[in-house]
Amino acid sequence: MKLAKFGGSSLASGEQIRKVFGIVKSDPLRKIVVVSAPGKRFESDIKVTDLLDAYYQDYKNGKNLVPIQTTLLDRFEEICDELELSELKQFLSEKVISLALLNLHNRFVYDKFLSTGEECSALIVSSYFKKNGLNAKFLSPKDAGILVSSDPCEAKLLPIAYNKIAGLVKYPEILIIPGFYGATLNGEVCTFSRGGSDITGAILAAGVKAEMYENFTDVDGIYSVNPNVVENPVIIEEVTYREMRELSFAGFSVLHEEALIPAARAGVPMLLKNTNHPELPGTQIVPNWTIDMPVVGIASSRGYVIIKITKYMLYRDISFGRRFFEILEKLGIRFEAITTGIDDMSILVRDKYLSAPIQEALSDDLKEILQVDDIVIVKNLAVVTAVSEEIRQQTHITGRATLALARKNIKIETLMQGASEVSLLFIVKEEVENETVRSLYEEFFED
Ligand SMILES: Nc1ncnc2c1ncn2[C@@H]1O[C@H](COP(=O)(O)OP(=O)(O)O)[C@@H](O)[C@H]1O
Ligand SMILES: N[C@@H](CC(=O)OP(=O)(O)O)C(=O)O
Q1: Contact 144, 126 (CB under 8 A)
Q2: What is its EC number (predicted)?
């Protein structure tokens, strides 16, 4: 059995849904289909999930809801018209309108709004499949057994869920399951973080021990670098789960970083393919590499800050680390990397965690509680991450990378090896982010 997940770009219009139908029909092993909400049809278009977000904001702020409801209903109506599913229009319209009756004080109200895109999408796909002769069945995430924690917009799968999910193999129909959300033990709708349909796909593929998790999107494979920075970059033929997790976390938005672990643990291989060109091989995500590459991919992300603290003889104070982390926890600051020395400690954080009041509270606590001598906050940084399993084995990769940057006069603010040992992090000023990516790409991929 294979699990096929189709992203928003594959469900954006009736024409795209016809392609999805063709793909599912062409392989009888594709027994579970996970769908996202309709995505963008063209560059300036708005994804249905973003429209639902706007709908929620208008509802919360007491605004006139007619314009946003009309935009949403038009999207669904257009798809239904293209697929000749007129019988579904009224049902979907009621679903969308009834969101404006929800209790705003419920913790999961925003999740319910956002999840409606995937729910409607799965209803459309299952109706179209049935109408065209496929034995398909809509199954809600709750009925599929996707039981999740009660963390609005950040659901985590409850381990007990896997028992029920395993039972999905018994269905004779092709199951069409909405991605992106699950049900809490109290039956509330709770979504994963944005882009989370990939997580649903991975969980279900792991739960039924699928022979393959196919992730269909709008590119021919995973590019070795952001295609907006380097024109026509090389497509990665094969990447390990660990490499891909690092790349996703470091900026490759093509796959959600939380979608790798469930599939990896269950040993389910993944294949990323293009809905518009399903005949192409795509990118395989595998447990162990078979192709030697000094660097598999280069990801980058901006909006970082380094907090440097200095305290004379810091390393002798055995409670310093604990007290420092307690301060970070209290202020809700997540850090991504840390280095320490005799008198210094530096942490890398995203600037979204460091608003002006939080920064002030952090400075006060560091001075009062930890009595640090100095605090320096360096802003507007980008992290460029080169990833490969080979980095652990071959020391010359770091040398080649730093030399390539030195040749272009690019100053590295800080260089770190990721704790997973499959990544090298080059922290640079935001203004040289793209140049850093291009220089590393030239060094490792050109010729
Ligand atoms: N390294 C990369 N390789 C491929 N695509 C990438 C990469 N980095 C970013 N992307 C973007 O990810 C998009 C696909 O992801 P996403 O928009 O979530 O698709 P979907 O709607 O199918 O889930 C591509 O269209 C591309 O613009
Ligand atoms: N529709 C949700 C979940 C998702 O995974 O979407 P997509 O497959 O289009 O990235 C979102 O936009 O966040």
Answers
A1: no
A2: 2.7.2.4
221 lines ligand 1 (CB under 6 A): no
Exposure of 164 by Cβ count < 10 A (0-12 exposed, 13-18 middle, 19+ buried)? middle
Going by alpha carbons, the residue nearest to atom 8 of ligand 2 is 7
Confidence at residue 430, expressed as pLDDT on a 0 to 100 scale: 97
pLDDT score of 292: 78
Cα-Cα-Cα-Cα dihedral of 173, 33, 158, 423, to 10°?
150
Beta bridge partners of 272: 215, 283
* Backbone torsions φ then ψ of 313, nearest 5 degrees: 60, 35
Nearest residue (CA) to ligand 2, atom 5: 195
The dihedrals phi and psi of 31, each to the nearest 5 degrees, come to -105, -20
Nearest CA to ligand 1 atom 6: 254
Closest-lying ligand 2 atom to the alpha carbon of residue 39 = 9
Provide the 3-class DSSP secondary structure of residue 155. Answer: coil
Confidence at residue 396, expressed as pLDDT on a 0 to 100 scale: 87
Q: Do domains 2-286 and 297-445 have the same CATH topology?
A: no
Q: Which CATH class is domain 2-286?
A: alpha beta
Task: State the 10-residue block means of pLDDT for the chain, 447 residues long.
Answer: 98 98 98 98 97 98 98 97 96 97 97 98 98 98 98 96 97 98 97 97 98 97 95 94 93 91 93 98 89 90 96 91 95 92 94 94 95 95 95 84 96 88 94 97 91
State which of 111, 180, 189 you would mutate to test the pocket of ligand 2, scoring each by most atoms of that ligand within 8 A of its C-beta: 180
Domain at 297-445: CATH code? 3.30.2130.10
pLDDT at 267: 93
**Dihedral sign, Cα of residue 369, residue 375, residue 377, residue 383:** negative
Domain ranges for the chain: 2-286, 297-445
Q: Which ligand 1 atom sits closest to the C-alpha of 198?
A: 23
Spatial distance between the Cα atoms of 429 and 340, rounded to a whole number of angstroms: 21
Question: For ligand 2, is residue 197 a contact (CB within 6 Å)?
Answer: yes
pLDDT of residue 288: 82
What is the C-alpha separation between 58 and 63, in angstroms, rounded? 5
CA of 226 to the centre of ligand 1 (A): 9
